Amino acid sequence: MSTPHQVNVALGERSYPIHIGAGLLAQAGALIAPLIKGSRALVIADATVAKHHGTTLTASLNSAGIAHALVTFPAGEPSKSLSTADLLWQACAANHIDRSGAIIAFGGGVSGDLAGFVAAAWMRGINFIQIPTTLLAMVDSSVGGKTGVNSAAGKNLIGAFKQPRCVVIDPRLVSTMDGREYRAGLAEVLKYGVIKDPNFFAWQEAHAEALATGDPTAVAYAVAESCRIKAWYVGEDETEQGVRAHLNYGHTFGHALERETKYTRYLHGEAVGIGMRMAANLAQRLGLLKDATLVARQHALLQRYQLPLAHTTDHKSALAETLTKHCLLDKKVAAGRMRFVLPTAMGMVETHEIIDGAAVASAFASAFE
Ligand SMILES: NC(=O)c1ccc[n+]([C@@H]2O[C@H](COP(=O)([O-])OP(=O)(O)OC[C@H]3O[C@@H](n4cnc5c(N)ncnc54)[C@H](O)[C@@H]3O)[C@@H](O)[C@H]2O)c1
Predict the structure, then answer these.
(1) Tell me: the pLDDT tens digits for 327-344?
(2) Spatial contact of 20 and 3, defined as CB atoms under 8 Å apart
(3) How far apart are CA 259 and CA 265, in angstroms?
(4) Which of the listed residues 130, 136, 180 should we mutate to test ligand 1's pocket, taking the one with most ligand atoms within 8 A of CB?
(5) Is there a single domain that holds both residue 152 and residue 231?
(6) Distance between CA 367 and CA 363 in Å, rounded?
(7) Chain segment 269-288, per-residue pLDDT in tens
(8) Rounded distance, CA 198 to CA 120, Å?
(9) Which domain range does residue 47 map to?
(10) pTM score, two decimals?
(11) Structure confidence by residue, pLDDT tens digits, 216-263
(12) Are 101 and 126 in contact (CB under 8 A)?
């Protein structure tokens, strides 16, 4: 079956397709059936997604003859836990999911990370399919095989690489998303242009309002381009030993901001958006940024996507120092060297190890108001 956009993730024998097309949820069963060859499937969905779109998915699986059960968990980040995973493993047992069975993740990044981890560990790994339903999950978390749960030790520290057998994306599903959640996903779309593809960035500049308002044709194209770029990084460097780290542009700054505000003030994409401004400022400060227009173009696009541009605080210098300390404690820091992905031109980034804490603190302060 051909679909309007198809992207391949090239990983040798574990390569897989990403199918992208408006209305594709109704064809998910037909796309999945050849991959799981008559075995049983467990659909793991968050309750909100199941309420909006569960009927379409189950009808599609039924018409393709896929025997399945659907289990839900409460929507939201707190469900990304070992205790929810344990309940889902019990559901695997109750629904007779054996070594030939499959798990289908249906939802946003929380569903994908959680269900992928359940699939990676159940019977030491069974078939896994991703059907992402948020913009963030479509352009980022459903592709690349990172799965896991949070724990008292920290966010995303327990997990496994588990590549799906395929990803089925119906961009129309974003129409039921909360507007703020949707726009936060646009920060990751913008990121792909800055790190890898000046043409994609220029296309976004030409279609910013269409994307911000969720125009279906624009969304489908942006998802396909984002998946193409993410798939390239995953194919080059599956386990993030090198170039895949470029996908973390804006994330080290953003994570520090999220942690400091206890994960309540910003959605992840919003923090990454502010973080990208800080990263571009640091690149400029260190004389690495050759393209003087990048800072203004990135700022303008974030603004047109209606994303927050700065963090409001009454304690700019004290907060900049605290956040710099957070960066030193980041799991990606080696021996006091903070690692940042910094732009050198539109479509080009480099990873730099920075020991100059004052420059990092000033970069933080550059996006405070
Ligand atoms: N594995 C990776 O590579 C990777 C990358 C980035 C982020 N993540 C993880 O992704 C998670 C965040 O993902 P998220 O932003 O998708 O959050 P999410 O899965 O919690 O979804 C956000 C909200 O949107 C609702 N929702 C989802 N789809 C909907 C739809 N179509 N219509 C209406 N409501 C819908 C959900 O019920 C939820 O309330 C985090 O846990 C993060 O760590 C993983």
Answers:
(1) 877 666 666 678 999 999
(2) yes
(3) 10
(4) 136
(5) no
(6) 7
(7) 999 999 999 999 999 999 99
(8) 36
(9) 5-176
(10) 0.97
(11) 999 999 999 999 999 999 999 999 999 999 999 999 999 999 999 999
(12) yes
- Ligand 1 interacting residues, C-beta cut-off 6 A: 46, 48-49, 52, 75-77, 80, 107-111, 113, 133-134, 136-137, 140-141, 144, 146, 156, 173, 176-177, 181, 268
**Contact at 8 Å (CB) between 164 and 132?**
no
Question: How far away, in angstroms, is 2 Cα from ligand 1 center?
Answer: 27
The amino acid occupying position 3 is T
Return the number of other C-beta atoms located less than 10 Å from residue 362's C-beta. 17
pLDDT value at residue 2: 44
In a shared domain, residues 159 and 142: yes
- Determine what percent of the chain is predicted with pLDDT higher than 70: 97
CATH number, domain with residue 225: 1.20.1090.10
Output the residue whose Cα is nearest ligand 1's atom 9.
Answer: 109
> Quick check: 364 pLDDT over 90?
yes
